[in-house]
Specification:
The protein is of the alpha/beta class. It contains 14 helices and 28 strands. A five-stranded mixed β-sheet has the order 4-3-5-7-6, sandwiched between helices. A five-stranded mixed β-sheet has the order 14-15-16-17-18, sandwiched between helices. The relative contact order is 0.09.
């Protein structure tokens, strides 16, 4: 299999002066990139690094550290900036990291790696054993306070990258702008490795520059400024960012003119939102994946490049190296791209049970319907996935977030967070939403949580609802409104 290093050497020969990486202040061309990767790899090896925990903002330095570890055969442990202090400490301890680039930690000694790049070092006598070939430990946010480490090989990462390159052939993506944290495996592979594989430019501005404040607050005006400045061809988004981008492009249509691919994942996307996005000139396509399977399992391609791989309403056909089956309970199983295993646990099986529910249509397109553990059964015995209703609510312009609670209840309750200044529009929009839903999935009662779900610690680090914790926190209100205590 062609290696990433072969690709970089080819790009050096063919377009050495082209920009490979850039951020707000610096550019690195392809002619410079591989020598810089090799030089930093040698520095890390001389420093005694074996497992590097990396907690930097999106930047060229983040990219170089990742690539240097891959080149030297060192294990990279990305540290999500949105992790709590407790989760960060858990990651450092459980991974056995001996080098840290990022904020200091108790018990670590200063370490100078290169001009402008310093870190921290500690002695780790008996780190937890890793599966053979582990190149990266990516931590899932999970629904508990202790995220799980997913062990991946470089071969697995690059297999996903190559499959993405094949799926997107003809899209002419020559400039990608990272909006999600590079510590997120999806952006790591699709926003860094894939552009370098293709000989494109990866633009890596800091998260604050593109609009993020913390893990769940976002300033859409900064995103508009970044898009106008960088004029990217491709973006990777979560559904909420697609909704914000759609609103921006409806008001400022020129923001969408450079875009050739906007891939959306990380949660179910309402078909109505995708239609709104396309009407605003955004070439949005939905995909699906999970870290345990290399981040991307299925992806639609833009209709103009591969019509046979494009079906609105689905998350696309599985990538070519993967096979997908649906078991008797409706759960999706994936074979062909399994992780090496969870950190500290036995090797992963060849087939991964995803915990997601879905269907394969007659043409092989995958449709996601919800999470198996989240299926709600009303007091009248009707089953539905809350993700379905929550995704449909993405089309309501006054609703920033909606979480529905119906399991075991005679009526469904929703927690609704309005956008600032839009509170008065909620009744009408919820009524319109209900008109699209069958009775058993409709919102019969709703309330506005105070404080917000994120502020109350009722969301995971990447913004998904902690459903059990929400039910406990709102037990009194649920009982008052429905007559049943959860």
């Amino acid at each position: 299999m062609t290696s990433l290093w072969n690709c970089l050497e080819q790009h050096t020969q063919q377009q050495g002066d082209a920009v490979a990486l850039q951020d707000a202040t610096t550019r690195v061309c392809y002619r410079e990139l591989l020598p810089r990767i090799k030089a930093l790899a040698e520095v890390l090896v001389r420093a005694g690094t074996r497992r590097l925990a990396l907690q930097l903002d999106n930047s060229i330095d983040w990219a170089l550290c990742d690539l240097a570890c891959a080149h030297a055969g060192l294990v990279l442990v990305p540290v999500p900036g949105f992790f709590s202090a407790e989760q960060r400490q858990w990651l450092l301890n459980s991974s056995g990291a001996d080098t840290l680039i990022g904020p200091p930690a108790d018990g670590w000694q200063p370490l100078v790696l290169a001009p402008g790049l310093s870190g921290w070092h500690r002695q780790v006598d008996a780190p937890v054993p890793l599966p053979s070939g582990t190149a990266k430990i990516t931590y899932t946010s999970g629904t508990t306070g202790q995220p799980k480490g997913v062990c991946l090989s470089l071969k697995q990462e690059l297999t996903t990258v190559r499959a993405l390159a094949d799926r997107l052939a003809g899209t002419r993506v020559e400039h990608h702008l990272t909006l999600l944290p590079l510590s997120t495996l999806l952006e790591n592979l699709a926003g860094l490795y894939l552009p370098l594989w293709l000989g494109a430019t990866a633009t890596l501005p800091g998260l604050e520059e593109v609009g993020f404040t913390g893990s769940s607050q976002f300033d859409a005006s900064r995103l508009a400024t970044a898009l106008a400045r960088w004029q990217p061809h491709s973006l990777v988004l979560v559904p909420e960012l697609l909704r914000l981008l759609t609103g921006l492009c409806l008001r400022q249509p020129t923001l969408a003119t450079s875009l050739r691919l906007v891939a959306v994942g990380g949660g179910r996307v309402a078909p109505g939102l995708l239609r709104q996005a396309r009407a605003a000139g955004i070439p949005a396509v939905e995909g699906y994946g999970l870290s345990e399977c290399g981040s991307v399992v299925a992806l639609n391609s833009p209709e103009h490049s591969h019509p046979e791989y494009h079906r609105p309403g689905s998350v696309g056909r599985p990538l070519d190296h993967l096979s997908v089956r649906i078991d008797e309970s409706g759960e999706i199983h994936v074979r062909g791209g399994a992780m090496l295993g969870y950190l500290g646990e036995p090797a992963a099986p060849a087939e991964i049970a995803t915990g997601d529910l879905g269907q394969l249509d007659a043409d092989g397109f995958l449709h996601i319907t919800g999470r198996r553990k989240n299926v709600q059964i009303t007091a009248f015995g009707r089953n539905f996935s809350p993700e379905w209703v929550e995704a449909e609510a993405q089309g309501c312009p006054a609703i920033a977030r909606l979480v529905i609670i119906g399991d075991g209840l005679p009526a469904n309750l929703a927690l609704v967070q309005p956008l600032p200044g839009q509170e008065s529009a909620l009744p009408g929009q919820i009524a319109a939403l209900n008109a699209q839903l069958p009775d058993y999935a409709r919102i019969h009662h709703w309330l506005v949580p105070s404080p917000g779900l994120a502020e109350a610690g009722l969301l995971t680090a990447n913004g998904r609802p902690r459903r059990d914790a929400i039910r406990r926190a709102y037990a009194d209100q649920i009982q008052h409104l429905t007559g049943v205590r959860p």
